[in-house]
Amino acid sequence: MENSERKTGVPYWKQIVALLCAGWVTIWIYRSALPPVYPQINESLGGGVSGAALGSISSFYFLGYVIMQIPGGLLVDKVGKKNVLIPGFILFAISAFLIAQASSITMIYLGSVLAGLGSGSFYGAAYSLTNQNIPAKRKSFSTAIVNSGSAVGSGLGLILSSFLVAQVGLPWQTMMYLTVFLAICMLISFVVIVRSNKDDVAFVKKEEKDEDNEEATIGEENKLSFSSLFRPKMLAAYVLYFATCYAYYMIVTWLPNFLSAERGFEGAAIGFSSSVVAFASIPGALIFSRLADKFLDKKLHFIVVLEILAAIMLVATVSVTSQTVLLIALILYGFLGKLGVEPIIISWLGENAPQVGVGTTLGVFNFFGMMSSVIAPALTGYISDVAGSQVMGFYISVILLIVGTALFALSNISQFKKKSAS
């Protein structure tokens, strides 16, 4: 609302950045809160729930999340960001409450799917807001701040869940009630801050735009079509994002087990070493996105170089024998990997998508990325069962990164040449 800017004196785009960062914190607190308390959930359900059944809680959540990506993006373009954010978080809050009341694993599954559908509406709306309201020279850095909410929320969810439930002894449902409270706070914030008109595009002065944005401006005048949504450079971006997310979700799911079973890490060292990926990503995202905003004509170069370096760090993770060197490789992967490069990719995507179809484009983009969250954990587990090691799972993620990066670079070869010649 315009009134919020008048009252606070804070520019609307800065309010959006803070709001969306808080949105990711809320979503990721929920995402990371349940796995640490699976034993308590099992106990509350009378025992006898298998590990696979408990692990499926997350699978059902991501199923709902993935299903919502394309419909959510279409709704953003059709009815507006605010009209998608508010119903989505209402469903998210209701779902967390249902999970807290669950008396069976089936009821938890149902709540998880609904939670995925509700929070799945956030991505397209959030990055439509950033792409349309943040000045070009601040877009990548601001998107990195928004993205940092996922790392903060993930860490808070793990810490709070472990401390409040496992150590203090509170019921596991406490984390779900906390999610409900945070979701309600977000709903109030959406109502107060987000502007109502669906065509809310912040005015960015012409002098703030580089000549390099002219191509994006021309593209914004075109209407969204299937051909524009899946033209070679966009399709290559989807493949690149799938590969980027594949590596990340493989690491998030299997790294603790890999460190314990194959590299000799024990006790607290496992948790610490696994968490460094998330925490190292925050400074990486902020630094590289700041540089990408400073050198607007080098975004493609940043994306390609960061993806290649991330692949190298994954190779180092499984090939070194020293625990110290392995830990350094993990820190560097977090610094260079998904959360470091993602804000730059999203910024590039916003510049190359038709303005009338930003929400839909983001929905398709994230659909491809989040498909990896369904495939990577299961495929790596299967490889581990067959081969007796997760090493091949790491190498598959490296191959995907190299192939995805090569396709993305080739699809933008003319743009690379144009930047080099200018």
Automatic annotation (TrEMBL):
Protein name: MFS transporter
SUPFAM superfamilies, per database record: MFS general substrate transporter
Regions that span the bilayer: 12-30, 50-72, 84-102, 108-129, 141-163, 175-194, 235-255, 267-288, 300-320, 326-349, 356-379, 391-410
GO MF annotation: an example: transmembrane transporter activity
Membrane in keyword set: yes
Keywords: Membrane, Transmembrane, Transmembrane helix, Transport
Species this chain originates from: Tetragenococcus osmophilus
PANTHER family (alphabetical): FI19708P1-RELATED, SOLUTE CARRIER FAMILY 17
Major facilitator superfamily (MFS) profile domain residues: 16-416
Top-rank taxon, per record: Bacteria
Topology within the bilayer: Multi-pass membrane protein
GO CC list: plasma membrane
A Pfam family it matches: MFS_1
Location (main, coarse): membrane
